[in-house]
Amino acid sequence: MIRHIKNERAATDVWKILRVNGDDTPQSVRLPVGPLLVPLPVWQARRAELIHREYEHGWPLGVWLAVDDRADAIAGDIDDFTVIAIEFSPGETGRGHAKARQLRELHGYSNELRAIEKEDDAVRLWGEGLDARVAKVA
pTM score, two decimals? Predict the structure, then answer.
């Protein structure tokens, strides 16, 4: 089960988080309909297709940065995203918070910035401009 918290309240989450698994590649993974958070490699491989999809169908687009992805990788594209999600690794929040701060302060991102995390890390993740989080509940 996934729990979405926005502005410290439980909220309905319409976003689908796309993951590249198994034999899929960023170029071959199927894009589901509706609001979609794509990993950085999918954004980089299919940018034009994703933008076209957003304008053609009106589906909001977001990107999520994995633990090792750099915020600078999307600096020139942040206006294309309704949501940017940052994955936090268990027991470590410094890099994730640094990415959030960089997106807000250096790149001027003002839309929703959310954390993707494990449930046991939930309490530690507020701050640095994060206004939502998605927690994986066991």
Answer: 0.81
